[in-house]
């Protein structure tokens, strides 16, 4: 099994394709399966690195609460372990928040950023009744099935992971729009028009990042990477084609 030993975390990861390095970061309560179709599309042109964070997919959980700062640290440790000093970053949901923080606080590591369905703070979510429509019952069932099948902690640990994620989403992130003015990486902000993050909030993220592009995918909910990977992949590929090539990759 492809694991890499990181400080405090034996992390599952997959590397596919060839070309410039691209880091694909999954969302909360997701595994690499959720971004699998997007991965296959991007790996036609890039060397895609997909790590699974603690408590997700095939990576064992850790006892401490979840925090975005810890996700950033885990991602940096992963890049160091695989010898990638700089990469394109495509993040979904929690992975997109991690990508924004990486681009803001560690600009030398991020060649470009695609942030899909991110939020800057908990106020960015739509009301609960709308959020429930953003992820279908079938999608919830699929995520639960994948967790039970893949997790080394066993299917029964899912409630613990969900509880820690819900606690995280009530508290974090706390990113001020002004702080994103320092982001220098070319950035694309994406979301579905039926996302659990409001369109106004998504637009505010794009407005806060200098020169960022904005794409709202019609008819798509929060799991747009799974609902319409071909469309998302085409938009991301077009964006990345406009980004300067990595020197000395």
Automatic annotation (TrEMBL):
Any Pfam family hit: Abhydrolase_6
Keyword Nucleotidyltransferase belongs to the record: no
Location of the AB hydrolase-1 domain: 22-232
Keywords (A to Z) from UniProt: Hydrolase
InterPro entries: AB_hydrolase (IPR050471), AB_hydrolase_1 (IPR000073), AB_hydrolase_fold (IPR029058)
Segments traversing the membrane: none
GO molecular function: hydrolase activity
Highest taxon listed in the record's lineage: Bacteria
PANTHER family registered for this protein in UniProt: BLL5160 PROTEIN (PTHR43433:SF1), HYDROLASE, ALPHA/BETA FOLD FAMILY PROTEIN (PTHR43433)
Protein name (Swiss-Prot/TrEMBL): Alpha/beta hydrolase
Native organism: Kineosporia corallincola
């Amino acid at each position: 099994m492809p694991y890499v030993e990181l400080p405090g975390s034996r992390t599952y990861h997959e590397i596919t394709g060839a070309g410039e390095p691209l880091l694909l970061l999954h969302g909360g309560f997701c595994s690499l399966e959720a971004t699998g179709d997007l991965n296959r599309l991007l790996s036609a042109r890039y060397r895609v690195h997909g790590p699974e964070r603690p408590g997700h997919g095939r990576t064992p959980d850790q006892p401490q609460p979840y925090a975005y700062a810890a996700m950033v640290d885990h991602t940096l440790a992963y890049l160091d372990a695989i010898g990638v000093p700089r990469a394109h970053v495509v993040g979904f949901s929690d992975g997109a928040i991690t990508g924004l923080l990486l681009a803001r606080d560690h600009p030398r590591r991020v060649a470009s950023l695609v942030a899909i369905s991110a939020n800057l703070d908990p106020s960015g979510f739509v009301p609960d009744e709308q959020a429930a429509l953003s992820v279908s019952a079938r999608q919830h069932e699929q995520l639960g099935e994948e967790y039970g099948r893949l997790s080394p902690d066993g299917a029964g640990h899912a409630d613990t992971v969900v509880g820690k994620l819900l606690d995280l989403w009530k508290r974090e992130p706390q990113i001020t729009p002004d702080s994103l003015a320092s982001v220098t990486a070319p950035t694309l902000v994406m979301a579905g028009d039926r996302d659990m993050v409001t369109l106004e909030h998504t637009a505010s993220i794009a407005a806060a990042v200098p020169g960022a592009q904005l794409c709202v995918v019609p008819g798509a909910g929060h799991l747009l990477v799974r609902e319409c990977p071909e469309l998302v992949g085409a938009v991301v590929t077009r964006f990345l084609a406009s980004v300067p090539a990595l020197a000395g990759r």
